[in-house]
Design a protein that fits this description.
It is built from four helices and nine strands; from the N terminus they run E-E-E-H-E-H-E-E-E-E-H-E-H. By secondary structure, the protein is of the alpha/beta class. It has one domain (about 1-175): Aldolase class I (TIM Barrel), CATH 3.20.20. Helix 3 (about 155-165) links the parallel strand 8 and strand 9 (about 170). The protein binds S-adenosylmethionine, ligand 2KA, iron/sulfur cluster and magnesium ion. Pathway: Purine metabolism; 7-cyano-7-deazaguanine biosynthesis.
Length: about 180
């Protein structure tokens, strides 16, 4: 059984796959407590894999995004294999502090100062608070490096930073701007 906060269908609002229709599976609970966290994830219902796969199978989109909370607390090869059997492309949003199953198709790591132990990262996506040196995260091996304004509040500051450090790209939380989930 896995503890799930919510399952919803929307567009990926952030990062490389922005705009892509996806089913979000938000797992409950986290091993970190970021002061800026924009998500209520503590509440949850227990679901077995058959129930999870049934909701996934009913979604027309190919992309499934595992998030939370911290999804790495809850997932294993069996869950990912089942999603692949349904023909899905499996993405994860993780803080990088725990390993994730190797079969996941797209790994987004949003580091939070704690050591990152991932074997593979596709995109690094850092919440820009203005309070930490984000350049340390450029040392993580990845294909893409994104900075994301914190709660849509400091977009100008992030744009200014990226123009001076053009190895980064801008990730907007587009779902918040257009008021979808
Ligand atoms: C809620 S987290 C869940 C997944 C995982 N725990 C993590 O932090 O990557 C999903 C994404 O939202 C980002 N995020 C959380 N709070 C935010 C905020 N106030 N503004 C912008 N992005 C935020 C995280 O950095 C992460 O990329
Ligand atoms: N639309 C939408 N896109 C997202 N991308 C990552 C999200 C997350 O909370 O992990 C998220 C979210 O909560 N909503
Ligand atoms: S690691 Fe992710 S879910 Fe956990 S508190 Fe930080 S932003 Fe929120
Ligand atoms: Mg979110």
């Amino acid at each position: 059984m896995r503890k799930i906060n919510e399952i919803f269908y929307s567009l990926q609002g952030e990062g490389f796959h922005t705009g892509t229709p996806a089913l979000f599976i938000r797992f409950s609970g986290c091993n970190l407590k970021c002061p800026f966290c924009d998500t209520q994830h503590e509440e949850g219902r227990w679901m077995d894999d058959e129930a999870i796969w049934a909701e996934v199978a009913a979604c027309p989109a190919r992309m499934v995004i595992l998030t939370g909370g911290e999804p790495s607390l809850w997932i294993d090869d069996a869950l990912i294999d089942g999603l692949h059997r349904l023909g899905k492309y499996v993405c994860i949003e993780t803080n990088g502090t725990r390993k994730v199953p190797a079969g996941i198709d797209w790994v987004t790591c949003s580091p939070k100062g704690a050591p990152v132990v991932l074997d593979r990262i596709d995109e690094v996506k850092v919440v820009f608070t203005g309070e930490e040196d984000v350049e340390v995260y450029r040392q993580l091996p990845a294909k893409q490096y994104y900075l994301q304004p914190c709660s849509c509040r400091n977009t100008e500051e992030v744009v200014d930073y990226i123009l001076k450090h053009p190895e980064w790209r801008l990730s907007l939380q587009t779902h918040k701007w257009i008021q979808i989930r």
